[in-house]
Amino acid sequence: MRNRALMAAGLLTATLAACGSSEPERVVEQIVVREPGEPAASAVVEPAALEEPSDKVDLAALGEEAFQACTGCHNADPGGPSMAGPNLYGVVGRKAGAAADYPYSEALASSDIVWDYASLDRFLANPAGYVEGTSMVAGAVRNGEQRAAIVAYLASTSE
Ligand code: HEC
């Protein structure tokens, strides 16, 4: 590892010298030698990262935060009104398309889905990919941990 880094440093010095740089030494000093297994400095940035769920973290509480991405169209309050999307109170265990005051798409209303963790996870990952023709055209959640937290939160509303 160290040898390879030094070789790279040597190459860089040569390259810089070839370019006529006047301070190759200073540039070489800035090369960071990583230990094996250490992540690169330019590590991928997680999208709107939630904290890693752990024993100390309440998944449903994290999900309640993540649910803010849904509140433009949904609420999950007991007896709350349906908005652009149906009220989601107690949706876990409920048949899809069953909120009485909401005009569902034919696609969702005629599906045989009963919402559970697995089907909600699938729907939230890609609504139209799961229920072709659904009118939920926004609000997909790419991050699996975030989906799990949201579903845990929705499940907690019906307990
Ligand atoms: C742009 C508005 C919009 C956003 C944002 C949105 N939804 Fe929806 N959602 C809808 C609509 C519209 C429907 C009705 C779909 C249909 O009838 O096909 C729906 C349906 C649903 C259903 C099915 C409910 C039932 O009674 O069968 C669930 C579950 C759901 N959404 C969860 C979520 C979650 C969780 C989020 C946030 C991550 C979210 N939605 C974000 C508009 C939205």
Total strands:
0
Q: Provide the domain count.
A: 2
What structural class results from the helix and strand content?
Answer: mainly alpha
Subunit organisation of the chains: single chain
Distance between the termini: 54 Å
Chemical compounds bound to the protein? heme C
What name does CATH use for the topology of the largest domain? Cytochrome Bc1 Complex, Chain D, domain 2
**What's the SSE pattern?**
HHHHHHH
Portion in strands? under 5%
Secondary-structure arrangement, i.e. CATH architecture of the largest domain? Orthogonal Bundle
Integer-rounded radius of gyration: 25 Å
Provide the CATH superfamily of the largest domain: Cytochrome c-like domain
* Average of per-residue pLDDT values: 80
User: Any idea what the shape is?
Assistant: globular
Describe the structure.
- The protein is mainly α.
- Helices cover 40% and strands 0% of the residues.
- It has 7 helices and no strands.
- The protein has helices at 2-19, 24-29, 59-66, 106-109, 117-125, 127-130, 144-157.
- Helix 5 packs across helix 7 (144-157).
- It starts with a helix and ends with a helix.
- The model is unreliable at 5-19 (pLDDT under 50).
- Bound molecules: heme C (HEC).
Topology:
Elements: H1 2-19, H2 24-29, H3 59-66, H4 106-109, H5 117-125, H6 127-130, H7 144-157
Helix pairs in contact: 3-7, 5-7
Task: Give keywords.
single chain; binds heme C; globular; 7 helices; 2 domains; 159 residues; Cytochrome Bc1 Complex, Chain D, domain 2; mainly alpha; 0% strand
The gist of it:
Helices cover 40% and strands 0% of the residues. It is mainly alpha-helical and 159 residues long.
